[in-house]
Amino acid sequence: MMEKQGRIASGTPVKPQKALHYAMVLSAITIAYNIAEGVISTFFGASDETLALFGFGLDSFVEVISGIGIAHMIYRMKRSSIMERDKFEVTALKITGTAFYILVAGLLVGAGISIFNRSQPETTLAGIIVAGISILTMYFLYVEKMKVGKKLDSDPIISDAKCTKTCFYLSFILLFSSLVYQIWQIPYIDAIGSLGIAWYAWKEGKEAFENARSKSLSCSGDCCENF
């Protein structure tokens, strides 16, 4: 009976509960993983003086706020059909967008200071390990979110999956800058890596504010571009 119910305004049908439960599990994994990644990345980023890894960790903490908003949305979808984002989700998006912009400013200043002082990390080994784990985790989450999003014909879940793919690419920036420095000790490569992370953080912040303004459940903005 549930599978035969109608579609909401965004084109998303009222969902089968089993698939929505799996979407909630994926959302919980995303939140838990980003918390762990944030703690580990900021700790080793600070101790090893690698700005790219530290910025990557802060980005993970911001992703937690976004993930909570997604989890809340899926919870509402489990209870009934929804037409647009509610006040909680819009607030979460605004906080997320603001945090991303603050992160961008901090990384730009940090990169400038690092280049001016000719600072170099003690080691970027932790960045290589974190990036490798993140690439595998984000790829798994992206694939599974896309599967459940397509199964449910859900624009919001597909949008979340594509933003997870953005995190997947972000991990490659960290891996590249960390690996190059660890092998060749190229000056400023860590600062350049942090600028790459800042660029993605700016895109994510812009996406968050666009979604907050529109309140739409459909995919929009940079995260929703085809990669």
Notes on the structure:
- With 227 residues, the chain is mostly helical.
- It has one domain (13-211).
- 77% of the residues lie in helices and 0% in strands.
- It has helices spanning 17-47, 51-79, 87-117, 125-152, 155-184, 189-214.
- The two termini are 36 Å apart.
- Residues 1-14 have low confidence and may be disordered.
What topology does this entry show?
Blueprint: H1 17-47, H2 51-79, H3 87-117, H4 125-152, H5 155-184, H6 189-214
Helix pairs in contact: 1-2, 1-4, 2-3, 2-5, 2-6, 3-6, 4-5, 5-6
What's the short story on this structure?
The protein is built from 6 helices and no strands. With 227 residues, it is mainly alpha-helical.
Give the helix/strand class: mainly alpha
What is the radius of gyration computed over CA atoms, rounded to a whole number of angstroms?
18 Å
**What's the overall average pLDDT, rounded?**
88
Unreliable stretches, pLDDT < 50, 5 or more residues?
A: 1-14
**How many E strands?**
0
Oligomer: single chain
Total domain units = 1
Label the overall shape: elongated
Distance between the termini: 36 Å
Strand content: under 5%
Order of helices and strands: HHHHHH
Helix content: over 70%
Q: Count of helices? A: 6
User: Sheet bearing the most strands, described?
Assistant: none
